[in-house]
Amino acid sequence: MVRKSLRFGSTVKGHRAGQILLRAQSQLLNERIRPIHFTLDALKDKVDQTVQKLPSLLPSSILEEVSNFREQGIGLKGYGQDQGDRSIPDDGLWHPSS
Question: For the segment 51-75, what is each residue's pLDDT rounded down to a tens digit?
Answer without folding.
Answer: 889 888 888 888 888 888 877 766 5
